[in-house]
């Protein structure tokens, strides 16, 4: 365990109850992630990857154990403080993009800024800038249904970065994309990490892809951490 | 999130679902429209009554009549009024004669005193006849604001051989236009006691025919003016269909009898005028003048006494209309709840995204509450427009029918500013209340579940 970890996950356990049945999704997971690292998380279906991601993003609360991010124990935050934590510290992208279908690409990217009290002009400026950064400068007015999968995921990446987070959580961002587009997206994340000083945690089934880009690889199986392997040293 | 962002966001989302928004808002429009319409009707009625009362200065009049004292003794009020408490059966009966009128005029606040004298008569105009009570009214009173002319003018003097008639009497006499009646000759047939031998013999020896010894006298006058229908009566000194000036009335033989009850009065009780109406300069002085009159052993009646009762009646009417209107509001509220629940189910995933990008439960709740409130705002504004349109149509139709009966145009609905703003505000409030349950549900959405939702 890295005592100086930017993200510190200690003996994290999550148990879901469905009536009398209890399902342990994550058991005593301990992981440490340094600032600015690109960490891949892999494992079979049901290994607890998404649960770990939800807990790390403050969307869910652990049954036991704790998470520290940049010195703050987020597992002890109230619901409102967790929302503020997500707003200012975390950016998330998902396998199914989760764009709002009735909004244009620009509106989707600007959406998180609504909750951060950013004035309208500034919202539009920042969203346009990010769309440009992900290579979609000409697609601002297009709705998600008018964009390809790769383009939609680029919009989602732009949305995740619009609040200038320090951590980007990517939950199977290439799951719905072909291999060429998948590579492009991960390459884009890789480049953005360097540009924006992001810490990236990316879940993927594709271990080869993670091995190509990630600094570290965490393997999960049946809710437990099998290993945390360092692939590259600090840049 | 800024308030302007909430509004813009709410409007954008409602606009995306135009049909559903229109249908839900339509329910609110009908509910609020009917509520405002009913309130406007209640307000219109109240305003008409109050305006009419104020215009005619009805609150400034006090009707004065002698207190019924048991009839044991007859004496001039001036001699004994101070000596015995009011309401005593042995109290002397005040006689409303000219001396008393002079004394009343000296009471501070009394501007004028009008004695009431009416007598029964048969009116003939052309070939038509009508029975009515003729009232003796001074030319000064006829020329005052109490009397509203529809055509012609007040009679020239107290001795003129002229009369004034009401438009309702003209209609009963089948005269369609008020202007057409001015200048025409009218016959007034009075009742007089007839003590001729023939009449007495008929009374004494008639078989089952106990007729009074009466006969008629016929007088001709010219119609000087036609009066608006008075409508309210109350303490106003004017409540007949035909007015004659005092000088002309003095020259007429007539039996002053206004009802069968007069036959049961003692001679003392029927002495003098049957009633006097006093006009008080200001409504503020009405109560003090009333007290002065009652101290003199007189019975008084003023509409001012009824003001509280009238206001209570208005409140009851408003509550009744509100209760009916609330039925529509309740139905509209269910529509809002349904729309908001549907909207939340449809946007379940969007709520998950909101939370993932940093929206608090409060943010989510406010987003949906603003949408609910926006439906209320639209419903309120269009409901007000609907209420106004409906009231306009009803006004035109009712006044159209009423005009045929000679009734002047009346605005039956009133839309004071507080009703307009209150209606819109109430619409927003009801919509927000209806939105509480769905928005709480939205705020409680688990983002993990919502983000996986299809």
Q: Layout of helices and strands, plus pairs?
A:
The complex is a heterodimer of chains A (235) and B (454).
Chain A: E1 7-18, E2 21-33, E3 38-43, H1 49-56, E4 64-69, E5 72-73, H2 79-89, E6 90-94, H3 105-114, H4 120-133, H5 149-161, E7 167-171, H6 179-196, E8 199-203, H7 207-213, E9 216-221, E10 224-230
Parallel strand pairs in A: 3-8, 3-9, 6-7, 7-8
Antiparallel strand pairs in A: 1-2, 1-4, 4-5, 9-10
Helix pairs in contact in A: 3-4, 3-5, 4-5, 5-6
Chain B: H1 3-16, H2 18-55, E1 61-66, H3 77-80, H4 98-105, E2 110-116, E3 118-125, E4 128-136, H5 139-142, E5 149-152, E6 162-166, H6 167-172, H7 178-181, E7 185-193, H8 197-205, E8 214-227, E9 242-244, H9 246-250, E10 275-280, H10 286-295, E11 298-302, H11 303-346, H12 348-356, H13 361-404, H14 417-443, H15 447-452
Parallel strand pairs in B: 4-9, 6-8
Antiparallel strand pairs in B: 1-10, 1-11, 2-10, 3-4, 3-7, 5-8, 6-9, 7-8
- How many domains make up the 3D coordinates of chain A? 1
Structural class based on helices, strands and sheet pairing of chain A: alpha/beta
Output the CATH topology of chain A. Answer: Rossmann fold
Number of helices of chain B: 15
Multimerization state: heterodimer
In order across it, which strands form the biggest sheet of chain B? 3-4-9-6-8-7
As residue ranges, the low-confidence spans of chain A are none
């Amino acid at each position: 365990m890295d005592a100086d970890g930017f993200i510190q996950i200690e003996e994290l356990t999550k148990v879901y109850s469905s009536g009398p049945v209890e399902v342990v999704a994550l058991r005593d997971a301990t992981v440490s992630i340094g600032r600015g690292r690109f960490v891949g998380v892999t494992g079979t279906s049901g290994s607890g990857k998404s649960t770990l991601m939800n807990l790390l993003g403050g969307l869910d609360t652990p049954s036991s154990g704790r998470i520290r991010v940049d010195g703050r124990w987020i597992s002890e935050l109230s619901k409102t403080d967790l929302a503020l934590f997500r707003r200012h510290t975390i950016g998330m992208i998902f396998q199914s993009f989760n764009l709002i279908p009735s909004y244009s690409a620009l509106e989707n990217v600007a959406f998180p800024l609504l909750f951060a009290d950013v004035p309208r002009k500034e919202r539009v400026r920042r969203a346009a800038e990010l769309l440009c950064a992900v290579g979609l400068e000409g697609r601002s007015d297009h709705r998600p249904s008018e964009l390809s999968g790769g383009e939609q995921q680029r919009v989602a990446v732009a949305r995740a970065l619009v609040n200038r987070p320090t951590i980007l959580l990517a939950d199977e961002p290439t799951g719905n994309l072909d291999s060429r587009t998948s590579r492009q997206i991960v390459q884009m994340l890789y480049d953005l990490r360097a540009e924006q000083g992001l810490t990236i945690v990316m879940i993927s089934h594709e271990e080869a892809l993670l091995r190509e880009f990630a600094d570290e690889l965490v393997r999960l199986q049946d809710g437990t951490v099998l290993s945390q392997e360092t692939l590259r040293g600090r840049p | 999130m800024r308030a302007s962002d909430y509004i813009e966001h709410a409007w954008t989302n409602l606009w995306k679902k135009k049909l559903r928004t229109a249908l839900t808002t339509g329910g609110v429009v009908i509910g609020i429209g009917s509520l405002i319409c009913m309130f406007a009707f209640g307000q219109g009625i109240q305003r008409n009554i109050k305006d009419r009362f104020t215009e005619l200065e009805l609150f400034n009049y006090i009707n004065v009549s002698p207190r019924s004292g048991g009839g044991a003794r007859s004496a001039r009020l001036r001699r004994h009024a101070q000596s015995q408490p009011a309401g005593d059966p042995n109290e002397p009966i005040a006689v409303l004669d000219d001396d008393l009128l002079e004394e009343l005029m000296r009471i501070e606040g009394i501007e004028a005193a009008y004695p009431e004298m009416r007598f029964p008569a048969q009116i003939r105009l052309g070939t038509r006849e009508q029975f009515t009570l003729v009232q003796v009214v001074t030319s000064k009173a006829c020329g005052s604001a109490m009397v509203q002319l529809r055509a012609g003018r007040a009679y020239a003097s107290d001795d003129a051989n002229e009369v004034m008639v009401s438009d309702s009497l003209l209609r009963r006499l089948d005269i369609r236009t008020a202007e057409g009646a001015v200048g025409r000759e009218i016959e007034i047939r009075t009742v007089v006691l007839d003590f001729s031998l023939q009449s007495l013999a008929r009374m004494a020896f008639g078989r089952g025919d106990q007729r009074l010894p009466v006969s008629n006298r016929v007088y001709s006058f010219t119609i000087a003016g036609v009066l608006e229908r008075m409508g309210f009566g109350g303490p106003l000194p004017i409540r007949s269909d035909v007015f004659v000036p005092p000088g002309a009335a003095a020259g007429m033989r007539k039996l002053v009898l206004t009802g069968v009850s007069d036959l049961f009065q003692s001679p003392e009780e029927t002495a003098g005028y049957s009633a006097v109406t006093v006009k008080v300069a200001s409504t503020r002085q009405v109560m003090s003048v009333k007290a002065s009159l009652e101290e003199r052993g007189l019975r008084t009646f003023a509409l001012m006494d009824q003001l509280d009762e009238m206001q209570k009646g208005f409140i009851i009417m408003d509550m009744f209309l509100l209760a009916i209107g609330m039925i529509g509001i309740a139905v509209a509220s269910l529509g809002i709840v349904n729309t908001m629940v549907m909207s939340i189910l449809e946007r379940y995933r969007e709520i998950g995204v909101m939370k993932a990008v940093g929206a608090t439960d409060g943010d989510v709740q406010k987003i949906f509450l603003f949408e609910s409130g926006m439906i209320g705002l639209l419903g309120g504004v269009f409901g007000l427009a609907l209420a106004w349109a409906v009231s306009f149509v009803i006004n035109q139709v009712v006044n159209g029918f009423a005009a045929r009966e000679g009734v002047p145009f009346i605005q039956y609905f009133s839309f004071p500013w507080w009703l307009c703003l209150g209606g819109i505000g109430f619409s927003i409030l009801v919509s927000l209340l209806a939105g509480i349950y769905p928005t709480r549900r939205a705020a409680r959405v688990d983002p993990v579940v919502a983000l996986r939702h299809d």
